[in-house]
Each structure stands twice: as structure tokens, then as C-alpha cells.
TrEMBL record:
Organism: Citrus clementina
Name recorded for this polypeptide: F-box domain-containing protein
Span of domain At1g61320/AtMIF1 LRR: 289-394
Top-level taxon of origin: Eukaryota
PANTHER family associated with the record: F-BOX DOMAIN-CONTAINING PROTEIN, OS02G0105600 PROTEIN
Gene3D superfamilies: Ribonuclease Inhibitor
Domain (F-box/LRR-repeat protein 15/At3g58940/PEG3-like LRR): residue spans on this chain: 172-250
SUPFAM superfamilies noted in UniProt: F-box domain (SSF81383), L domain-like (SSF52058)
Domain called F-box: residue spans: 22-61
Amino acid sequence: MNRESGDDIVIMEEVLSSMDRISNLPEPILHCILSFLSFKQVVQTTVLSQAWEHAWRTFPILEFDKTFFNQVPSVSCNNKIEAQLGDEKLSRALNYVEGTLRTRRREMIRLDKFTLDLYELRVKELGPFVDRCIFSALESDVKELKLALPFHTSARVVDTRPGMPSVDAHNKRCYNLPQEVLCSKSIQVLALSCCKLQSLRSVKLSSLKKLCLTSVYAADQVLESLVDGCPLIEHLSLVNCLGFNTLDLSGLTKLNEFKVLNCLEVLWLSIQALNVKTVSIQLSLPCDINVASCKNIKFLTLRLLSLKDEWLCSQIPNFPFLENLNLVGCDKLKSIKISSLSLKTLKIFECAGLIEVKIEAPNLSIFRYEGDVVSFSIGAMTLLETHLSFDKNNSDIDWYSEYIGLLAMFHNVSKAVNLESYEGENADIPEDLRQIRSSPFYGYNNLDFVITGTRVRVAIKNTIDGLLWISPHLRTVTIKSFYLNWFSFKFEFSYKKQAVYEGGIAQCCKSRPISCWRQCIEQVVVEYTSNCVNNVKRYIFNGEDIWEKIDWLADLDTSLAWSVEL
């Protein structure tokens, strides 16, 4: 009996061994599998087999991010017991990080990536720990180093320049990055958050291709030395950084992408990088910007800048390969004049001082606009997509009249026009105006309408009625909202008879200028989805009371239990 049981065990082990074929894969393949898992999942694989345990011990990617430290208290605790337990958890976590790094160094494993995200801990005296981790990673020839540090990390802190009111309090006491990091021959990607760069003796990041600084303090000369010491840099990102007033990027022949966002003290910016393709600039203070020599720019974003009309008009011709232009929140602009043969996508968002827009871009295919109703002048072009969101500041009939005129103009140059509105009010065209104006859209089969505001209950009936006046005889209408309580209504319409058009206007619309669809429509199929339901709700409306049934949809969020097909 015992012998048979022993034989059974041997057979079972053989079966299990043959089944675990993944463990027999070459270790580089196991490493590739581990690279798609979270840190917690990676560690859990060590119990599967010795092969997986060894794969973890030689795994060259170490990411100690927020999920790793989520069990450690982020703020000081008044309860002594809880505070003691929190200190113990933190101590174990920090020891595990250092032990893992020591193992890699002892086994002479070169690190492809090391991430240390301590941002949410808000714990003092972490400076020595961070130093040890950095030096250990450098000794393992780390290629990608990402550090996100809390505001108070070390006893060895250096206050920023005195008397600087624009420097936030958290930058007055922040971690000083060791000089050794900026002399590493192995680092190819360096991402730093919440630290300070001291006066640099020398920077020799000879392999660095990507540099991302977030909430970093660096003086003008320090930043200039840093950039000069990265001859191979391809991507440079500066976000919420302080300490420098000028930014001169010249001689960076490999630079492909540059981004500067919310660097509050920058007053002068010059980019002389012939091969840069993507530039994104967001600065709140008036700033002198020179990008004219960037002849190969394809993607340009200018956000919250104090730009003048003349500057923008003179700059665009300098970019013969420009394909994508985004102008966002540039309130000083009054007249936007764009002339470009290469431009394919143009976005103009919330430029509050805008009065007119003139576009001469024959190859433009996508246009997006958010803002007031302004004067538009558009040259010969055929847009594939147009997305329009006009701010409605009053109920004046003149506003609606201009609005309808603009819709008609964009209809003439666009294969598809999608509309957006804060609470759906832009679809509710006054009845008096419908009597004297023609519908702006004809010939469209589909129309998307996006609600961007916080309103929970939308007047579905009025919205559908208005959209079907704006564009009669649509086959489908989709109404979407992407706020907290997101939802989507898709309406499919069937008509009693096919519309007969004469001069671009349906005959039934001429005879019944107001809501002719009420007489022509035969059936409506509605599909409803939201974050409150797991599946699509489908409704079929027909008969003379279709109008009332559509009105009922406005209360659907409170009637999800009523799952019926009418």
C-alpha cells in the first residue's frame, strides 16, 4: 500500500514537472514575462519553482513605486502604537529595497531600470537611505534611473536663494542629488522629481538620451551645465521646475522632443535644435520665446503663453514641416492667422481674447475649436473631422444666429462635424430662429454630441429635437458625457419614407421648418451605457408617442431597474 502510494507520488511529480513547461523556458524569456507584471506579482512568482526564484534574483528591473510603499503611513501619526507599527513597516520596506540592490550588486547583475518612488511618504531623514540606493544602482551600471522623493528627505539640505518669493516652500528644503549621478556613463534615462541640483563641477552623462525633471530646483548655470553635458539627449522635459530665468538650448543635434511646463520663473527661452520634431511650451509669465531655427518641427503646442498676434503670424512660416499646431489658453491673441501648406491638425482652445481666425491650410484634415463665437475665414480645404465647442454666455438670438452661420460654414468644408456643449444648451435652437433660418447641416448620416459639463440630468428630448433640426434625417445620433457619471446614448432612426432633396434641402423640411422629423420618423432604437451598468441597455420606440418615450430617457439613471423593451 505504501509502495503504491510512493509510486503515485513519483508519477504525480513527473506529471507536474511535464506540465510546468514555462519554468523550463530560457531565463531571458522569463525576464521578459516578469517585465509585464507588477512588483508584487513578480515577487509572488518566486514560489512557483526554483527557476522562477532564480529569474527574480537575476531580474534587472527593480521598480519600488507607490504600490510597494502603499502600506507605509504617508504622514505623522498621533497614536503612538500606530506610529510604532508604521515605523516598523517602513524599516522593513527600506531594508528590503537595500537588500535587493545588494543582491544584484553581489551577483554582478547590471540593472536595466531602478525606480524609487518615495513621494507620498512625507518622512524625514531618508537622505542617507536614498544615497545608498543611488550609489548601489550606479555600481550596477543602471541604465534607467527614476527617483521621486518626498519634500523632506535629508538632514543635509540646502535652502534655496533667500528672498525669492516665487520659490515654493517645498523647494526650500529638498534632497540634493549626488554629483556622481551626473557623471554616470551607463544612465540612458534619468527622471528626477522633488530634488535640487547643486553647483555642478562637471556633467558627463555621455549615454543619456532622455532627461525628465519634475519639481526640481536648478539655477541658470546649473541647468546650462547639465544640458551641455548630455550630447546625445533626444528627449528633454522640464515640469514645475524653479531656480532658472533663462533657458538656452543650443548645440543639441540629437534633440527630438522638448517640453517645458509651469516653470514659473522662466523669462527667456531659446531653442536652437535643428532636428527637434516636438515642442510643447506652457509658461505663465510673459516670456521671450525664440524657436525660429527649429526648422523641422512637426508638433508644436503653445499653452497659457502671452503671445502677440504678430509673433505667431511670423513664426508659423518658419516651420515648413509643421503638421500639428495646438494653441491653448493664449488669452493675448486677438487675431490668429495661420498660413501653412504642411499643417494637418489644428487645435484652438479657450483663447479668451480672440476676435477672428483666418486659416489658409489646404492640407488641413482635423480642426478642433473651443471658445467664443468669433469671426472665421477659411480658405479652400476639405476637413475630414471638425470638432466644435462654442461657449454660450447668453441667450441672445444674435448669438444663435452667428452660431448657426458658423456651423453652416464648417459643414461646407467638412466631411464630418462633431459638436460639444457644456450642458447640451448649444443644441436647443430657439423656435423663432428655426422659422427664419435653414438647418446648417444636410447630408450627414451620423452626428456625435459631447456634453462636457457637470450636469447630471440632461434634457434628452430637447437635445435630440435640436440636433435633428441642425442636421435633419440623421441615421444615428450619439450623445456622450465623460464626467464622473459618464453615459452614452446612441439613437438609430428609421424614417417613413426617404427624404427628397432639392438644392440641398429636404422637401419635408421646407414644408415643415420646425421639427419635421416628428412627422417623418417611424422607429427609434436606443442603446444606453453608463458607469452605473455593466451591459448595454437597449430600447425600441415606435408609435405616435415616440416623443414622450424619448423624454423618459432623461430619468434613466434613476430607473435602471426598469429594464424593458417598448
